[in-house]
Specification:
heterodimer, A: 278 residues, mainly alpha, 9 helices, globular, B: 12 helices
């Protein structure tokens, strides 16, 4: 009987530890989010979306940074998503079981977690150094490289979920492989592919390290992607590290906008796109 | 799988060839990007490696004015902060993952799981800012004086916990890093535990096992290598993380055993100094650091992937 009692006790203790770990883990994370929301909400104002980033000691907004981020993320999507979808198609469709596909899907997962600061330096060596100056384009390329493995992976996963009987039915009708992909397989896997692209977008929207020495920053309004481009993450970094209170407030406001965007997109993908596709 | 010849018009066959070419080309591009990143870091760092040789790794001298660069301090800071982060994050992550798969009431598993995945999606710069404005002052006011007081005078341990309570330093950065990698490891560990065949657990239940006995004698042994894989995945993240640590590490190039002192990491050094690097040798030294980081994370992440493949599961979702 005592051994049964001991087993029960150990069982209860283990459950308590796991429960306590969950509470402990979630506490930190709730704390961090709460700080961001409280500090950010206090600094939120209409000027945030109508004025440029200010010089030290005066007030302003983040309009140029928001615009720059928007342009770079959009450009990264345009560059990275088609390549990622094509590569994912190769892995899941006619490249399936080939040596190249096995190698690529292995290394793609490594690239997925590769340090983003190294990707930033790569874009620097690739574009900034040859062209002689920092540019929004270099930032977009760095973000596209970070987006690429996410899209490759989610596309391949979505395509693998399409039942083989659908492919066979389409081929039996005499359709060429390109038609089978565009008319049958992509349509069946659309929800999964869109999910992947949107999650990738949420990821690159908050990336800071790869932009530090590619897009750099720009205090003024600029729409020229061949020049340094203001962007929200780098502005947050620079303003948070500064000694000025006005800049700290703007950094928190930027952090709030960024967090709401990223979490909102994640939630939307979870509850709208995924549900709609099933 | 080829289409019948009579149905494949000449344009269809041409489109097919193009389609294959484009998708295979895109797959090659993924390899090219990875290889290109490694090659361009090696190329960019060649000046530093050529000038300092092995001394680049073993020297602690980082003198931008004199043009002498040794990477021991950032390497040390990267390794120590990652290890401490894992010591904090791994037990918590495994506890949360077990809670989510076997202990929590069924209705709560979905929401808590989503919360963990959302937290893995929060940009790391948010963690860094919280560390700088909230956590570092707290460490300076309450935790570090206590550590210095209680542990600082002990013979061996004291070395690690003595120093001024400034809040910015290796210990603070490690804790912030630990909080940040926790959701990653949790998400992967949960997938791993979920992949344990139910029949094994059911057999244990039939033999009269308690929940803890199922966990410790069935789930954990079955999932062991994949759990190590999840931990390595977290390690890969921690080694290369930039923004969560740059804010609170202090960018100091002095080698100090004390965890309370400001230090540096490879990623933080690059983030802080690259745009200010005014000589070719300085820039090359920072790129050489990136090369070392890339190689080490490549090895760690490959090992993680191999260990996770054994259980038929790979990385948690898109992370």
């Amino acid at each position: 009987m005592t051994s049964l009692l001991r087993r029960r006790l150990v069982d209860i203790l283990a459950s308590l530890f796991a429960g306590a770990a969950t509470v402990f883990g979630l506490t930190w994370l709730v704390w961090i989010l709460w700080t961001t929301f409280a500090q950010g909400a206090a600094a939120l104002s209409p000027a945030l979306f109508t004025q440029m980033t200010p010089p030290p000691g005066s007030s302003g907004g983040l309009l140029n940074a928001l615009y720059g981020s928007f342009v770079m993320v959009l450009l990264a999507l345009v560059i990275g998503a088609p390549v990622g979808i094509a590569a994912g198609t190769y892995l899941a469709e006619h490249g399936r079981y080939s040596k190249l596909a096995t190698t690529v899907s292995f290394l793609n997962d490594v690239l997925l977690s590769a340090p983003s600061i190294v990707i930033g330096l790569f874009a620097y060596e690739l574009i900034v150094r040859p062209s002689g100056h920092f540019s929004g384009l270099a930032g977009a390329v760095a973000l596209a490289i970070i987006l690429l493995p996410i899209v490759v992976r989610t596309t391949a996963e979505a395509l693998r979920l399409v039942p083989n009987s659908m492919r066979e039915a389409a081929f039996a009708l005499g359709l060429p492989a390109s038609r089978v992909a565009s008319h049958v397989i992509y349509k069946a896997a659309l929800g999964g592919i869109v999910t992947g692209v949107l999650l990738g977008l949420a990821r690159i929207a908050g990336e800071t390290a790869p932009l530090l020495f590619t897009a750099l920053n720009n205090q003024f309004w600029s729409a020229d992607i061949t020049q340094p481009l203001a962007n929200v993450p780098v502005v947050i970094f620079q303003y948070a590290m500064s000694p000025y209170d006005e800049w700290h407030a703007l950094a928190w406001a930027g952090a709030l906008v960024l967090t709401v965007f990223v979490l909102g997109l994640n939630l939307a993908v979870r509850f709208v796109v995924r549900r709609g596709s099933r | 799988m080829r289409s019948p010849p009579q149905a494949a018009s000449s344009t269809g066959a041409g489109a097919d060839r193009l389609f294959r070419l484009v998708t295979a080309g895109a797959a090659w591009l993924v390899l090219l990007v990875l290889g290109g990143a490694a090659a361009s870091m090696a190329w960019g760092g060649r000046l530093a490696f050529g000038t300092f040789g092995w001394g680049f790794i073993t020297s602690r001298e980082w003198d931008a004015v004199g043009g002498r660069f040794g990477a021991l301090v950032p390497i040390y800071g990267t390794l120590v902060s990652s290890v401490i982060a894992l010591i904090i994050a791994v037990p918590v992550s495994i506890g949360v993952a077990l809670f989510l798969t076997d202990i929590a009431p069924r209705w709560s598993r979905g929401p808590i799981g989503v919360a963990i995945e959302l937290l893995a999606a929060v940009p790391s710069i948010i963690y860094g800012m919280w560390g700088l404005f909230v956590f570092a002052p707290l460490m300076a006011a309450h935790v570090e004086p206590w550590l210095d007081d209680r542990l600082g005078r002990l013979p061996v341990v004291g070395e690690f916990f003595s120093g001024p309570a400034i809040g910015i330093g290796l210990l603070t950065a490690s804790i912030v890093l630990g909080i940040m990698v926790m959701p990653f490891i949790t998400a992967v560990a949960r997938d791993v535990f979920n992949a344990v065949p139910p029949s094994l657990k059911e057999a244990a239940v039939a033999l009269g096992s308690t929940r803890w006995e199922i966990l410790s004698r069935v789930t954990l042994p079955y999932a062991r290598s994949a759990i190590v894989g999840a931990v390595f995945l977290g390690l890969g993240r921690a080694l290369g993380e930039t923004m969560a640590v740059t804010f609170v590490l202090g960018n100091a190039h002095d080698l100090s055993p004390s965890l309370l002192m400001p230090s540096n990491s490879i990623a933080a050094a690059i983030a802080n100094e690259f745009t200010e690097a005014d000589t070719e040798l300085y820039r090359s030294s920072l790129i050489a650091l990136a090369f070392l980081l890339f190689i080490v994370t490549f090895i760690v992440l490959s090992a993680a992937k191999l260990m996770l493949m054994r259980i038929g599961r790979t990385h948690g979702r898109t992370h």
